[in-house]
Amino acid sequence: MAPASEPVLTSDRALVIITTELRGYVAPCGCTSNPLGGIAKLAQLVADKKRSHGEPMIVTAGNFLFESGASKATTLEQDEARARVVAEVYRDAGVLAQTPGPFDLMHGGGKLVRELKNPWLEDGAVVSQRAAELNVAFIGVRAPPFDPRALVVKVALARERNDAVVALTSLDWPQARALAQAVPDLDVVIAAAAGEPHAPQRLGGTLIVDAGEQGQRVGLLELVRGATAGSKRWAYYDGGALELSQLQRQLAAAESEIAALPKNVDPALKNLQMGRREDLARQIAELQNKPPPPPKERYLRYSLVPLTKKMPDDKSALAKMKAYNATLCESSKRATEGLECEKAPPGAPSYIGSAACGSCHAPALAQWKTTKHAHAVETLEEAGKLCDLSCIGCHTTGFNAAGGFCSPQKIGALPDVGCESCHGPGSIHAKTTKTEAPFVKAPGEALCLQCHTKEHSDLFDFKTYRPKILGPGHGAK
Ligand code: HEC
Ligand code: HEC
Ligand code: HEC
Ligand code: HEC
Q1: Which atom of ligand 1 is nearest to the CA of 465?
Q2: CA–CA dist 389, 236 (Å, integer)
């Protein structure tokens, strides 16, 4: 059975499949405990929805090709190649309309947006599609400041010929709210905000939604025709989700209040609190067992589907990603081969590699080899990403650091998260055995956090992680 959040297969509804702020992400790096996203999973989801919904309308809002307005000279070729893969997979999936974001328009002066034949939606332009006997119009709103008066007129015109008008924007959440206020005739505003997705919001008759960033989640907007010919506006139905989340918040608050009660509290007061908790729990169970029925008149529904690791991949998209991976070593070679890596300034240490440390610290080297840090390059090799310039920095030692290395072709003695990732470059220490700064005798949390960022190490906790990298021969007391 399909999970409750999945739309039911019927021909009474049009489906819009929404990605926002994809930012050129082809797939998650795989660093975290629960990696989300991947355009091959999206392509497979689209294929499945085509089977169940006929003609889903696929749209994207906001930065689509790039995660910044400019690339470093060394990563430019890889970034553009990745952007091309993303654009192609969406074209293959049959994308209907795309409002590019500021990074896309800035990057190389918007060269790729002009070159790629994706269905970019110009500012103020309208495109419509018919599905499930509904005409749905999308109007592009590229950037603030938008011109409310011009938009009001355009939306009114689009409304005459369509059942719903959706603004496909590159606006952040507050700007999207301002748009909904200024152009109240819009049925839906699709915002493009960074970070976690917002809960859908109603403003007057307008529904505002987004789908988060990096293609981790897909937004599914359903337009359900409804049994009765209702008003021209659309009702919104969330299956009781908002009420449920409010009740759950109240329950959590009630529970922490009970936990905080002093031991000698008046039993009557305690009973009152417990009664309230039971009451909330009962209301939640009722709502979960019997969600409110959908409205009779036409209505909108919005759900966010996380693209989880276990979801299937579209084979052809996967093949394109593999082909892209196979170009990484060539492109990084072209981009970095001629570079003179930055030398350590006079008097400052450079990197010598873990093996050299091991010549005096054999027990520490032997212990380090038992840790995951010693296999970080192997991890990239297995993923076909050894030459991906966006990965190599955290999975090797001294990449792009003075006295380190600056090209995947020149890793040499510095593969993996070696001794000097934590203790700092050690050429001077190895000669003098002195341990004064800048040599790092006792690496602390701040150092780990350079690589163990939230985005790449969601479970990182210094207290539990530190003991895992130490042991007999290396820092175990
Ligand atoms: C900001 C630093 C950083 C970058 C950039 C980075 N990683 Fe990681 N990666 C980590 C850290 C830290 C871990 C360990 C996370 C943990 O276990 O808490 C990790 C773990 C992994 C793992 C899981 C290894 C295992 O043993 O389960 C994979 C796979 C991986 N990374 C691949 C990649 C790929 C591919 C890229 C580039 C697309 C990349 N990483 C970029 C820091 C990074
Ligand atoms: C020529 C031998 C030699 C080499 C090569 C060498 N060390 Fe050392 N190291 C020593 C000696 C000897 C000490 C003890 C110095 C002292 O306590 O004053 C030491 C101390 C240390 C300490 C501090 C231990 C403590 O708590 O006092 C660390 C950490 C360390 N070395 C790491 C490294 C790393 C990392 C490398 C490679 C970059 C390295 N060493 C290379 C000889 C060496
Ligand atoms: C240069 C980047 C970098 C630094 C600095 C770094 N790590 Fe890591 N760490 C990684 C990467 C990459 C991995 C994943 C290696 C793999 O499995 O391929 C990892 C994995 C780990 C793991 C294994 C997690 C697991 O899944 O079991 C632990 C534990 C860990 N790191 C602790 C630390 C601690 C503690 C520090 C600081 C003292 C630290 N790391 C500093 C990059 C780094
Ligand atoms: C992920 C970070 C990390 C890596 C990689 C790492 N160390 Fe350490 N090392 C530490 C920490 C943390 C301590 C404990 C320092 C303290 O006392 O707080 C330590 C302690 C030491 C010490 C002093 C304690 C002892 O038992 O002698 C030496 C020597 C040392 N490391 C050498 C090495 C060598 C050699 C390598 C590479 C083979 C290496 N370390 C790799 C983090 C690291």
Answers
A1: 18
A2: 45
Contact present, 169 and 179 (Cβ < 8 Å): yes
Answer whether 307's CB lies under 8 Å from 213's CB: no
Ligand 2 atom closest to the CA of 422, numbered from 1: 35
**pLDDT tens sequence across 208-233:** 999 999 999 999 999 999 887 666 78
Residue 64 pLDDT > 80 = yes
Is the CB of residue 210 less than 8 Å from the CB of residue 197? yes
Identify the residues whose C-beta falls under 6 Å from ligand 1: 29-31, 372, 379-380, 383, 385, 388, 390-391, 393-395, 451-453, 456-457, 459-460
Calpha distance 406→409 (Å, rounded): 9
Distance 388 CA to ligand 3 centre (A): 19
| Chain position carrying tokens 């759900």 | 303
376, 61 Cβ separation under 8 angstroms = no
CA-closest candidate to residue 120, choices 102, 137, 96, 103: 96
| Rounded CA separation 39/91 (Å) | 12
**pLDDT tens column, 85-122:** 999 999 999 999 999 999 999 999 999 999 999 999 99
**In the numeric block, which tokens belong to residue 274?**
């417990």
Of the candidates 473, 359, 328, 333, the one whose C-alpha atom is nearest the C-alpha of residue 426 is 359
Q: Which residue's CA is minimally distant from atom 15 of ligand 2? A: 433
Q: In sequence order, which residues have a C-beta less than 8 Å from that of residue 266 and are 6 or more positions away?
A: none
For atom 34 of ligand 4, which residue has the closest CA? Answer: 419
Q: Is 430 in the pocket of ligand 2 (CB under 6 A)?
A: yes
| 42, 43, 136, 338, 361 from 231: Cα distances, Å | 34, 36, 16, 67, 78
**The two structure tokens encoding residue 456:** 């790449």
In this structure, which ligand is nearest to the CA of 396? 3
CA distances from 371 to 308, 358, 375, 405 (A): 28, 15, 8, 23
The closest ligand to the CA of 388 turns out to be 1
The answer to whether 421 and 368 have CB atoms below 8 angstroms apart is: no
Asked if residue 298 lies in contact with residue 207, where contact means CB atoms within 8 angstroms, the answer is no
Which ligand lies nearest to the CA atom of residue 422 in the structure?
4
